[in-house]
## 1
Amino acid sequence: MNIEYENYTDFEARTVYWYFNNSKIALKFSVVISAVYSEKLNNVVVEVYEQNELQFYNLDGSLHFTRKIPQLEKHQFRGINPNLKSGSGVSFLYQPQQVAGNNECIDMLQYEMTLDKDNLLGKKLGIYR
C-alpha cells in the first residue's frame, strides 16, 4: 500500500491519501501530519504531533482508534517510521535530549510500536540511520 501526500512542501503535509477498492481515500488535517501503512495492523497510522496523538485508520478511511504518542524519559519524540523488525511494522523515533555544552551529533533511536493498544511503546530496535 502506497501512502502519499497532497500539497507536500517543506516537509509539511496536511493531506494523506491512498487507494482502496479502486477509490482514492484522502484524510485532510488542519495541522502537519505524517503517516505510514502497517500491513501487520492493516491500518494507516497517522502521527498528529501537535495533538500528541496517533490515529489509526481502517483502509476505507474510517477512524479505528486513537492513542497518545508514547513518551520516553530523557528523549524527544521525532516521528514514526516503517520497520520490518517491529511486531506492528511501525517504529517510533526518539532523540536523546541534549546535555548543556555538548554539541556532538546524537543518533536517533528506534523503538518498536507494539500491537498492544494499551502500551504501544515496545523494545529498543536500534539506531536510526
## 2
Amino acid sequence: MFNRITEQNIYTLAGIPCILDFVVTATDTGGELTENGTYRLTVDGIEKARGTIINNDPNNSRDYNSIDVSQYLHTDSNVVKIYASMDVGGTSNVEVSKSWNINVSSVELKWTPSFTTPNYINEEFKLEWEIVGGSGIKKITHIIIDGQDYPKETTTAGE
C-alpha cells in the first residue's frame, strides 16, 4: 500500500523546501510487516535520487516517510514520481509508485536605484524597482519614508 499525505498538486516557490510525506506499508505472506525498502525518485522521468524508506505501521499515524525534493525541481511544471520497492518474500520485490504535480515559481527582485547625493534641499530622491516572475503570486510593496508608513500595494500581476 502506498498513500500520499502531501497533496498531489503542489504550488511552491523556488528555494523553499518542498517536502513530500507518504506512507508505504507492506506485509509478507504471513501478514507481518516486512523490513524497510528502497525508493527511486524521478522528476519528469529522469532519475534524481535513491534511498531507503521505512515500512510504515498502519496503526501509527505518526509513522510516515518524508523526502525534500526541492533540490531536484526546476521552475515551472514538474512531475515527481516515487517508486517504492519492498521485499515481501518470494522471488521478486513488489514495486508501487505515486506521483505529484509540482509547479515551481520564481520571483526575482530587480532594484535599480537612481539617485545622487542631494546638493540642495529640493533635490529629488527616486527609487525604482521591478519584480519579475512568480505569475499569479501576490506581491506586496510596503514603503516607510522618514518614519511615515505608506499604504501597502498588493498585486498579482502576471496572471
## 3
Amino acid sequence: MFFGRKLQDLSRKQKKSFSLLILREIAHIFFFFVLFLNECLPKDWRTTKIGDVRVFWAMGQSAESYQDYRGSQDSSSRRAIDEIPPEELANAMLEVLMDFNSCQQDTLYRETVKLFGFSTVTAKARKYLDFGMEALKKSGRILK
C-alpha cells in the first residue's frame, strides 16, 4: 500500500525517466526499511555469519549447540547454498566424515552438497563449504 501510493505520486510528478525514479525511490525505501529492521531486532538475539551476512537463530537456540542440518527432499525445498548456515554445513560434513571414516576434502564437499540437494560443487558452493569447514574446526569436533 505504501509503495503503491509512492509510485502514484512519482508517476504524477514525472512522466520522463519514470523507471529510473522508481528504482531510486525503491532503493531509498529499502535502505531505510533495513535500518528500521536492524533497530527492531532484539539486541541479545543470537547470530552467526555467512561471510558478511548475519544468520539469526531461534530464541533459545545457539549455533554452538545445534547438532543437526536440514537437507533437501526435493528441488522445491532446496535452499540456495548461501542460505545454509555454516553450522548446518559443518554438521552435515561431520555426518559424511563419520560415514566415510575419513576422506579427501573434495570428496567431503561433494558428499556434503548432495545432502542439501546439489549435484556438483561450484566455486560459489566451495566458498560456503569453506565457511562450514571453519565452523566445524572451531567446534572442536574434528582435528585441525
